[in-house]
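[Structure tokenization] protein backbone as discrete codes

[Encoding] learned vocabulary of local backbone shapes

[Begin record] amino acids and matching fold tokens:

___
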Amino acid sequence: MALSWYLLNPFKIMNGALDKPHMQARAIKLKNELYGRCERHELTEQECRGADEYLNRVLDVLEEYAY
């Protein structure tokens, strides 16, 4: 019973470990948020370019990992 509850529960308890797909998804969400802020002119063009460059670097580093 407890195991089936755990498998069906959408709010599973995390063990603190991060994996590649979750980190990539979070970085992409940050890029989308950045894009929106840049489109609304909440940031300067220089800030947008710099933040975008570093988020791309994060995604590049994540590509180096197998899992």
About this structure: The chain has one domain: 13-63. DSSP finds three helices and no strands in the chain. Residues 13-63 form one domain. Helices lie at 2-8, 20-39, 45-63.
